[in-house]
Amino acid sequence: MQMLASQIGLYVTLENDGYIKRNLITESGEQELPVTTIKDEIIEFSELNFGPYSKAVDIIQEIADSIKIESKRKLSNEARSNYERLTSVIDILVNELKENSLVASLLTGTMVVDSVPIFDDSIESIEITKAILPTLLRAIVDFNLFVNDTFYNIYTGNTIDEDGEHYFLSQIMLSQELTFEGELTARYFFRNLPDYYIFLLMQFLSTKPQLVRCECCGKYFVPKTNKATKYCDRILKDGKTCKDLAPSLKHKKMVLTDKVVEAFDRAKRKMYRRYERNDGKIYMSPKGITYDDFYVWNDAATEARDKYLRGELTAEEALKIIEVND
User: Fold this and answer.
1) Using CA of residue 25, residue 26, residue 27, residue 28, what is the dihedral sign?
2) Alpha helices (H) along 47-76
């Protein structure tokens, strides 16, 4: 059965105890994804590698800036060629994302289709497209960083909405489909990636969650009980979890781990602020950086942190990669 373009997207059903059922509908049909929980899905989103997005943003912005409309009546072959380059970057990104997340791949594609006008060989369609595409991709990366900041505030006990930063969470419009098979069931429909994760974050925050940062790997998790828990169940090394390995680690190692993880968090916030100095500005701030600069650092720093935790780097070696100068 061929799907209508308007039917393509992600359908989400809320189930008991925080579980969600997800059905992905593509041009080739419907696929039921593994059942997961709201907390697992939003925490996994916070840990995703957004390097492909950041690189795409920089490439698209560079191409967009190179598109010069010399005549308001006739579109040049160069402008038309650059427009095709813009769309090809999105196609490459969508295909690359399939390797790690079918949801991210599909909803990035549908979000672009819904936001960018159909190219009719007009100057207006190119002008709109080159303005919209970088904004769309930035929204995804920005929300990932927003989620990480929210987690940090929960973990440290800070007031989450002290500056009114969460107001936009109530601004999304959700499409809902009702079915009745003995009981009324609602499932939510998404064609926009940030909206899906905003929805999950709202659901997550409504449970007033307790977040703990694992003292072994430095990543966030929700403890299963109210009992004080320091270590998560992620596989860290040789098939063993943080909970398995932590008791055998020496106290000195745990102190250094805290130092390395804190340095990573501190440097990440500092580097993102440097990106914000330059966002949307014509001239680069002396300490400003691009999206790609941020994620080149982030990829290297994350790898250094994780290698240290696996015992493949010393604390000094890891900190040399992670820490940045003011």
Assistant:
1) negative
2) 51-66
Mean pLDDT of 165-176: 70
Ranges assigned E (strand) in 27-97: 29-32, 36-37
Nearest residue to 145 via CA among 305, 269, 8: 269
3-state secondary structure of 223: coil
Mean pLDDT (the chain, rounded): 81
Size of the chain in residues: 326
Give the range among 197-201, 203-207, 234-238, 284-288 with minimum mean pLDDT.
284-288
- Please give the helix or strand (H or E) that residue 205 lies within, else none: helix 193-206
Best-predicted range by mean pLDDT (39-48, 61-70, 305-314): 39-48
Element (H, E) at 189: strand 184-190
Q: How many C-beta neighbours within 10 Å does residue 267 have?
A: 19
Distance CA 118, CA 125 (A): 7
Q: Going by C-beta distance under 8 Å and a sequence separation of 6 or more, which residues neighbour residue 318?
A: 260, 304, 305, 307, 308
- Between 213-217, 256-260, 290-294, the lowest mean confidence (pLDDT) is in 256-260
- Residues 301, 322: Cα–Cα separation, whole Å: 5
Least confident of 68-72, 112-116, 230-234, 268-272: 68-72
The answer, yes or no, to whether residue 247 has pLDDT greater than 80, is no
Distances (CA, A) of 191 to 46, 86, 96, 157: 20, 21, 18, 34
Backbone CA torsion sign across 53, 56, 62, 65: negative
Taking the C-alpha atoms of residue 276 and residue 268, their distance in angstroms, rounded to an integer, is 12
Beta bridge partners of 287: none
Q: What backbone torsions phi and psi does residue 252 show, to the nearest 5 degrees?
A: -60, -40
Q: Give this prediction's pTM.
A: 0.80
